[in-house]
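Model it.
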Amino acid sequence: MSKDPLPMRGIVGFPLAPFREDLSLDIKALERDVDELSRHPFCALNAPAGISEVFSLSVDEAVEMVRTTVRVVAGRMPVIGCVCYSATVACEMARRMEDAGAGALLVLPPYYAGAPFEGLIAYYRAVANSTGLPLAIYSRGWASFSAEEVDRLASEIPTLRFWKDGQADLRNLQRIRSRVGDRLVWIGGAGDDCAAGYAAIGLDVFTSSISALAPALTMAWGDAALARDFPRLNGLLEEYVHPLFAIRTRRRGYEVTAMKEMAALLGRPVGEARPPLPPLGPSETADLQRVLESWRPFL
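Modeled.
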């Protein structure tokens, strides 16, 4: 596989991390879900990632998710691995995921929340030096960057190819893109519900957690976003996406547990989320069922 394999246009999909009743990783369920995802024209699959509970996985489990996804995808699209924790652990993950067949790596912020920029650049540089794969930095949570800082990262880390935005701060993202330009590929990654904003400022790569449940719905809004068909895009988001995200934002952790509950309601159980992610309440489950009923044209 090419060392720089990701297309510059399209939708990145995700499988959830399926667990058995004892919360061990369920490889058979992962194979089932990756096979379904890879039947759709995603530009890449990202496994594991935040939506697939990467911070709850051991290094062995995270690498096995990459290996399994690569095997099942069988060359139909590139697979992006995901590294995190500390520089030492992230570098081990990077090396092992490269050996497992990943085509690129998404680098999450490290364990130390609020680290200064000099510490962050050392972390990203360490990961880059541990692998030949292209990197995508994921700017999320406290790991927010100025245009000057992203410029420096792009200049000092030659294998940095992609920037995944998880902030949904379009004003700052525009400043960053104005300064850095096409040295990086810009990925809209704050959520399906942000697709219209990202499309409006010219992004051509988007991520979709909904892809884990309803790939056809993701493809529908993704096609509209790439075509800049804003009436259709906004209509799809308003009718099918915003109701789900309204439930997901009721409580921290619901962005994962709601998706796992919906998978169970669809007859594709992936187990419960690992602690500390909270279980849903009965009212949320009933609300999710109503969302799924509205999704019938895409299921």
